[in-house]
Fold this protein.
Amino acid sequence: MSKTKSKRYSSMGDQIFDVCNYIFMFVLILFTLYPFINMLALAFNDANDSIKGHIYLWPRDWTIQNFQYVFSESNIFFATFISAARTIVGTVISVFCTAMLAYTISRSEYALKKFVSITFIFTMYFSGGLIPSYLLIKELNMLNSFWVYIIPGIIGVFNMIVIRSFIEGLPEGIMESAKMDGAGDFITFVRIVLPLTVPALATVSLFVAVYQWNSWFDVFLYNSSRPHLSTLQYELMKILSTSNTTASAADAFANAQGNKTVVTPTSIRATMTIVASVPIIMVYPFLQKYFVKGMVVGGVKG
């Protein structure tokens, strides 16, 4: 009788814990998502009505004029194309090169393994600074070029550590079998290692893609005089930095559309935030399961 009673109370305690846990997670998710939902509500709400305030989770006066104004910018579509191109190209090249480096450092027969690892980790704590970096880019003739977005950040040390930790957890016998069959290091890396490290590669790909998509400072430093190399985030930055003069431009846009609605700087900022965030948010669900697995393995092995 006492054992049955104990199990009942234990079960009741577990149920209370589950309910409290669900409530806590729901509140946490709400606080995490609220800024984005609020921006979404402001973006779809009439700008004049938004000035009154008290817009939280739902638009009070629906409109798409904020998006019409943002997409009326002449360079916005080409800037989006450049952002997408640098994200795709930069992610593929960076992940592949980082994985090759991680595979090399993970090999026990590599004599300079420790030295190379320490050298790369050293760069995580110390850098040359902004001016030396700019002078280096200039000497390499990468100013005013698309490749300045790709080459300088082609290797990420943290990403290399994540992939290396994953590779070190692979069965050594698989790679030894490939070598016994006559496969070289590159063939072993491409045909054996890469397919087995998909979770780590997906995790690193997400890191690199988010960085490439959100980056704008390198555009400002190296390509600000080349409008055809501008990115979506740089265009967003320019709109945000000129928010004091945006209202007059919005008035002109409203007059051209034949209405009296004014697009305010606040509504423009919210709209641009949504436009810049949606592509990455759409990609994340497809990589989530790999992202979690890759981070767990990298964290345990690291």
